[in-house]
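Entry 12.
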Amino acid sequence: MKVAVISDVHANLEALEEVLSDIDSAGAESIVCLGDIFGYGPNPEETVRLIRSLSIPSVMGNHELALVEPEFFDWFNETAQESLILSEELISADTRNWLSGLDATLIFQGALFVHGCPPASITEYIFEWTDSGLKSLFDQMERQICFVGHTHTLEAVSFNEGKIRRCALKQGTFKLNGDAKYIIATGSVGQPRDGNNNNAKYVIWDNIEQSLEIRFVPYDIAKTAAKIVALGFPEFNARRLW
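Predicted 3D structure (C-alpha coordinates):
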Protein backbone atom coordinates (compact mmCIF):
# COMPACT_ATOMS: atom_id res chain seq x y z
CA MET A 1 0.00 0.00 0.00
CA LYS A 2 1.12 3.54 -0.72
CA VAL A 3 0.57 5.75 2.32
CA ALA A 4 1.02 9.52 2.09
CA VAL A 5 2.35 10.98 5.34
CA ILE A 6 1.76 14.68 5.92
CA SER A 7 2.75 16.80 8.90
CA ASP A 8 2.87 20.32 10.27
CA VAL A 9 0.22 21.86 8.03
CA HIS A 10 0.06 24.83 10.40
CA ALA A 11 -3.18 26.24 9.03
CA ASN A 12 -1.71 26.78 5.56
CA LEU A 13 -4.75 26.03 3.42
CA GLU A 14 -3.10 26.76 0.06
CA ALA A 15 -0.26 24.33 0.78
CA LEU A 16 -2.62 21.65 2.05
CA GLU A 17 -4.91 21.85 -0.97
CA GLU A 18 -2.00 21.52 -3.39
CA VAL A 19 -0.52 18.61 -1.44
CA LEU A 20 -3.85 16.77 -1.38
CA SER A 21 -4.13 17.24 -5.14
CA ASP A 22 -0.57 15.93 -5.57
CA ILE A 23 -1.33 12.92 -3.35
CA ASP A 24 -4.28 12.08 -5.55
CA SER A 25 -2.23 12.31 -8.74
CA ALA A 26 0.58 10.23 -7.20
CA GLY A 27 -1.79 7.36 -6.54
CA ALA A 28 -1.45 7.09 -2.76
CA GLU A 29 -4.20 4.93 -1.27
CA SER A 30 -4.23 6.34 2.26
CA ILE A 31 -3.13 9.47 4.14
CA VAL A 32 -1.93 9.89 7.72
CA CYS A 33 -1.36 13.27 9.40
CA LEU A 34 1.32 13.73 12.08
CA GLY A 35 -0.22 16.72 13.83
CA ASP A 36 0.25 20.48 14.09
CA ILE A 37 -2.63 21.06 11.73
CA PHE A 38 -3.21 24.18 13.83
CA GLY A 39 -0.97 27.19 14.57
CA TYR A 40 1.08 29.87 12.75
CA GLY A 41 -1.09 30.07 9.62
CA PRO A 42 -4.25 31.99 8.68
CA ASN A 43 -6.78 29.17 8.12
CA PRO A 44 -6.93 26.87 11.15
CA GLU A 45 -10.67 26.24 10.89
CA GLU A 46 -10.57 25.50 7.18
CA THR A 47 -7.55 23.18 7.31
CA VAL A 48 -9.03 21.12 10.14
CA ARG A 49 -12.36 20.88 8.36
CA LEU A 50 -10.62 19.67 5.21
CA ILE A 51 -8.63 17.03 7.10
CA ARG A 52 -11.81 15.87 8.84
CA SER A 53 -13.89 15.85 5.65
CA LEU A 54 -11.45 13.35 4.14
CA SER A 55 -11.37 11.22 7.32
CA ILE A 56 -7.59 11.50 7.49
CA PRO A 57 -6.36 9.87 10.71
CA SER A 58 -4.24 12.31 12.70
CA VAL A 59 -2.16 12.40 15.85
CA MET A 60 -1.73 15.30 18.25
CA GLY A 61 1.00 17.86 17.67
CA ASN A 62 2.52 20.20 20.22
CA HIS A 63 0.34 23.09 19.01
CA GLU A 64 -2.77 21.02 19.62
CA LEU A 65 -1.34 20.02 23.00
CA ALA A 66 -1.40 23.69 24.02
CA LEU A 67 -5.20 23.57 23.70
CA VAL A 68 -5.39 20.59 26.05
CA GLU A 69 -2.76 21.66 28.58
CA PRO A 70 -2.75 25.47 29.02
CA GLU A 71 0.33 25.21 31.24
CA PHE A 72 2.23 23.99 28.18
CA PHE A 73 1.68 27.43 26.59
CA ASP A 74 4.81 28.76 28.34
CA TRP A 75 6.92 26.21 26.43
CA PHE A 76 6.47 28.27 23.24
CA ASN A 77 8.43 31.35 22.22
CA GLU A 78 6.71 34.75 22.08
CA THR A 79 5.93 34.57 18.35
CA ALA A 80 4.37 31.13 18.67
CA GLN A 81 2.38 32.25 21.73
CA GLU A 82 0.92 35.22 19.83
CA SER A 83 0.03 32.87 16.98
CA LEU A 84 -1.64 30.38 19.30
CA ILE A 85 -3.81 33.07 20.90
CA LEU A 86 -5.03 34.35 17.55
CA SER A 87 -5.44 30.82 16.15
CA GLU A 88 -7.72 29.87 19.04
CA GLU A 89 -9.95 32.84 18.19
CA LEU A 90 -10.31 31.58 14.61
CA ILE A 91 -11.58 28.07 15.37
CA SER A 92 -15.03 26.84 16.34
CA ALA A 93 -15.80 24.99 19.56
CA ASP A 94 -16.31 21.82 17.53
CA THR A 95 -12.88 22.13 15.92
CA ARG A 96 -11.27 22.82 19.28
CA ASN A 97 -12.88 19.71 20.75
CA TRP A 98 -11.72 17.57 17.84
CA LEU A 99 -8.14 18.83 18.07
CA SER A 100 -8.15 18.34 21.83
CA GLY A 101 -9.24 14.73 21.41
CA LEU A 102 -6.42 13.58 19.15
CA ASP A 103 -4.27 10.70 20.40
CA ALA A 104 -0.50 10.92 20.78
CA THR A 105 0.21 7.87 18.60
CA LEU A 106 -1.28 5.84 15.79
CA ILE A 107 -0.46 2.40 14.42
CA PHE A 108 -1.28 1.98 10.72
CA GLN A 109 -0.08 -0.63 8.24
CA GLY A 110 2.37 -1.89 10.85
CA ALA A 111 4.11 1.48 11.34
CA LEU A 112 4.11 3.89 14.28
CA PHE A 113 3.06 7.50 13.75
CA VAL A 114 3.84 10.17 16.38
CA HIS A 115 4.45 13.92 16.21
CA GLY A 116 7.70 14.24 18.15
CA CYS A 117 9.61 11.01 18.59
CA PRO A 118 8.98 7.40 19.57
CA PRO A 119 7.58 5.80 21.49
CA ALA A 120 4.95 8.48 22.23
CA SER A 121 6.42 11.97 22.66
CA ILE A 122 4.52 14.93 21.29
CA THR A 123 7.15 17.52 22.23
CA GLU A 124 10.64 16.01 21.88
CA TYR A 125 12.62 16.68 18.71
CA ILE A 126 14.42 13.79 17.08
CA PHE A 127 17.52 15.96 16.48
CA GLU A 128 17.93 16.44 20.25
CA TRP A 129 18.90 12.80 20.72
CA THR A 130 22.49 11.52 20.79
CA ASP A 131 23.35 8.26 19.05
CA SER A 132 23.29 6.40 22.38
CA GLY A 133 19.88 7.87 23.15
CA LEU A 134 18.61 6.92 19.71
CA LYS A 135 19.75 3.34 20.25
CA SER A 136 17.60 3.28 23.37
CA LEU A 137 14.63 4.65 21.40
CA PHE A 138 15.07 2.01 18.72
CA ASP A 139 15.28 -0.69 21.37
CA GLN A 140 11.89 0.48 22.66
CA MET A 141 10.36 0.52 19.16
CA GLU A 142 8.32 -2.59 18.48
CA ARG A 143 7.74 -1.48 14.88
CA GLN A 144 10.31 -1.41 12.11
CA ILE A 145 9.42 2.12 11.08
CA CYS A 146 8.21 5.25 12.86
CA PHE A 147 7.13 8.43 11.13
CA VAL A 148 7.59 11.75 12.95
CA GLY A 149 7.02 15.43 12.25
CA HIS A 150 7.81 18.39 14.54
CA THR A 151 11.23 19.28 13.09
CA HIS A 152 9.82 20.58 9.74
CA THR A 153 12.79 18.87 8.09
CA LEU A 154 13.30 15.68 6.05
CA GLU A 155 15.53 13.00 7.53
CA ALA A 156 15.90 9.23 7.80
CA VAL A 157 17.48 7.90 10.98
CA SER A 158 18.28 4.18 10.76
CA PHE A 159 19.48 1.54 13.19
CA ASN A 160 21.12 -1.61 11.89
CA GLU A 161 23.77 -3.93 13.30
CA GLY A 162 24.17 -1.67 16.32
CA LYS A 163 24.89 1.46 14.26
CA ILE A 164 22.94 4.72 13.94
CA ARG A 165 22.94 6.46 10.58
CA ARG A 166 21.36 9.81 9.73
CA CYS A 167 20.52 10.79 6.18
CA ALA A 168 18.95 14.02 4.94
CA LEU A 169 16.14 13.16 2.54
CA LYS A 170 16.06 14.81 -0.85
CA GLN A 171 13.35 15.02 -3.48
CA GLY A 172 12.94 11.63 -5.13
CA THR A 173 12.98 7.99 -4.00
CA PHE A 174 14.69 6.58 -0.92
CA LYS A 175 15.02 2.81 -0.60
CA LEU A 176 14.55 1.27 2.83
CA ASN A 177 16.72 -1.57 4.12
CA GLY A 178 14.47 -4.41 5.23
CA ASP A 179 16.95 -5.35 7.98
CA ALA A 180 17.02 -1.88 9.58
CA LYS A 181 14.70 0.08 11.83
CA TYR A 182 13.85 3.64 10.83
CA ILE A 183 12.63 6.92 12.24
CA ILE A 184 11.52 9.08 9.31
CA ALA A 185 11.08 12.85 9.70
CA THR A 186 8.57 13.75 7.00
CA GLY A 187 9.06 17.49 6.59
CA SER A 188 6.26 20.06 6.68
CA VAL A 189 3.34 20.85 4.44
CA GLY A 190 2.72 24.34 5.72
CA GLN A 191 6.07 25.64 6.93
CA PRO A 192 9.17 23.71 5.75
CA ARG A 193 12.50 24.55 7.39
CA ASP A 194 14.87 22.40 5.36
CA GLY A 195 16.56 25.11 3.30
CA ASN A 196 14.09 24.79 0.41
CA ASN A 197 11.19 26.42 2.19
CA ASN A 198 9.07 27.53 -0.76
CA ASN A 199 7.67 24.08 -1.50
CA ALA A 200 5.31 22.06 0.64
CA LYS A 201 6.87 18.71 1.60
CA TYR A 202 5.51 15.27 2.37
CA VAL A 203 6.41 11.61 1.80
CA ILE A 204 4.73 8.57 0.30
CA TRP A 205 5.62 5.29 1.99
CA ASP A 206 5.30 2.15 -0.12
CA ASN A 207 5.22 -0.71 2.36
CA ILE A 208 5.34 -3.33 -0.39
CA GLU A 209 8.35 -1.92 -2.25
CA GLN A 210 9.88 -0.74 1.06
CA SER A 211 10.59 2.73 -0.25
CA LEU A 212 9.85 6.39 0.37
CA GLU A 213 9.03 8.97 -2.25
CA ILE A 214 9.80 12.50 -1.08
CA ARG A 215 7.51 14.99 -2.77
CA PHE A 216 8.02 18.76 -3.19
CA VAL A 217 4.87 20.70 -4.06
CA PRO A 218 4.71 24.41 -5.07
CA TYR A 219 1.80 26.53 -3.86
CA ASP A 220 0.69 30.17 -3.75
CA ILE A 221 2.91 31.43 -0.93
CA ALA A 222 2.05 35.09 -1.58
CA LYS A 223 -1.63 34.41 -0.96
CA THR A 224 -0.96 32.65 2.33
CA ALA A 225 1.53 35.30 3.46
CA ALA A 226 -0.91 38.12 2.69
CA LYS A 227 -3.61 36.48 4.79
CA ILE A 228 -1.21 35.98 7.69
CA VAL A 229 -0.39 39.70 7.76
CA ALA A 230 -3.99 40.82 7.21
CA LEU A 231 -5.20 38.78 10.18
CA GLY A 232 -2.61 40.29 12.51
CA PHE A 233 -0.33 37.29 12.96
CA PRO A 234 3.37 38.03 13.54
CA GLU A 235 4.90 39.05 10.20
CA PHE A 236 7.68 36.53 10.84
CA ASN A 237 5.14 33.77 10.16
CA ALA A 238 4.73 35.13 6.63
CA ARG A 239 8.42 35.83 5.94
CA ARG A 240 9.57 32.36 6.90
CA LEU A 241 7.42 30.74 4.19
CA TRP A 242 9.80 31.96 1.44
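Annotation: The longest helix spans residues 13-26. Residues 2-239 form a domain with the Purple Acid Phosphatase; chain A, domain 2 fold (CATH 3.60.21.10).
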